[in-house]
């Protein structure tokens, strides 16, 4: 259970990272529901800003949960209206983060349940695996698909991630499976703490 949540800070460079607690990086294309997911997980309405003008800032936002680990909200990728130079900056920042971040426990890759993984999503996933990073995939907006089709859609998506065990379909609107993901996060953090 997530008992406490605190926005700590926003950074443009990882050298200013907060202390030595484990970190979970949230990645996903712009508008996929990263900020909404943080609000759902922490059961807060406005802890993370849900945007109507997506993908503007190149900032890593740090949220401290249960006083034990950080959720790191990265800017969304694949935002077409972002100027080219900002796209390059984002990729440089992301690579720097993935290669150098201390205490990065795993990456949570968010995809859209209705749309399924995009080309960018799949290449990001392949890139993360090539770095031997653990990945949890969270498919958002499950509520947007008719209940009778949800099972089939989840199966299709799972197959695109090599039948990954750690894949969860959630809704920030109905809160379906939010507790399940929170428990999976906490379990992974605790496993490592005792390793
Ligand atoms: N129906 C539905 N809408 C959702 C869900 N999650 C997020 N949304 C909506 O999707 C839009 C984008 O959500 P955000 O949480 O701002 O997405 P984001 O990934 O943080 O976007 P950036 O910060 O721009 O990268 C908002 O209008 C949300 O209300 C969901 O599970 N179901
Ligand atoms: Mg956001």
Write the layout of secondary structure elements.
Layout: E1 5-11, E2 23-28, H1 34-42, E3 60-65, E4 69-73, H2 84-100, E5 104-112, H3 119-130, E6 135-140, H4 147-160, E7 167-169, H5 178-194
Parallel strand pairs: 2-4, 2-5, 5-6, 6-7
Antiparallel strand pairs: 1-3, 3-4
Bound molecules: guanosine-5'-triphosphate (GTP) and magnesium ion.
Fourth-level CATH superfamily: P-loop containing nucleotide triphosphate hydrolases
Largest sheet: 7 strands, mixed
What is the approximate shape? Answer: globular
Order of helices and strands: EEHEEHEHEHEH
Number of domains: 1
Strand order of the biggest β-sheet:
1-3-4-2-5-6-7
- What is the CATH domain class? Alpha Beta
Structural class of the helices, strands and pairings? alpha/beta
Distance between the termini: 21 Å
In short:
The protein is α/β, with parallel strands linked by helices.
Account of the protein in words:
The chain is α/β, with parallel strands linked by helices. It has a single domain, classed as P-loop containing nucleotide triphosphate hydrolases (Rossmann fold), CATH 3.40.50. 35% of the residues lie in helices and 22% in strands. It contains 5 helices and 7 strands, in the order E-E-H-E-E-H-E-H-E-H-E-H. The chain has helices at 34-42, 84-100, 119-130, 147-160, 178-194; strands at residues 5-11, 23-28, 60-65, 69-73, 104-112, 135-140, 167-169. It has a 7-stranded mixed sheet, with helices on both faces. Helix 4 (147-160) links the parallel strand 6 (135-140) and strand 7 (167-169). The protein is globular, with a radius of gyration of 16 Å. The model has no long low-confidence stretch (mean pLDDT 87). The structure holds guanosine-5'-triphosphate and magnesium ion (MG). Guanosine-5'-triphosphate is lined by residues 28, 30-36, 50-51, 54-55, 75-76, 140-141, 143-144, 171-173.
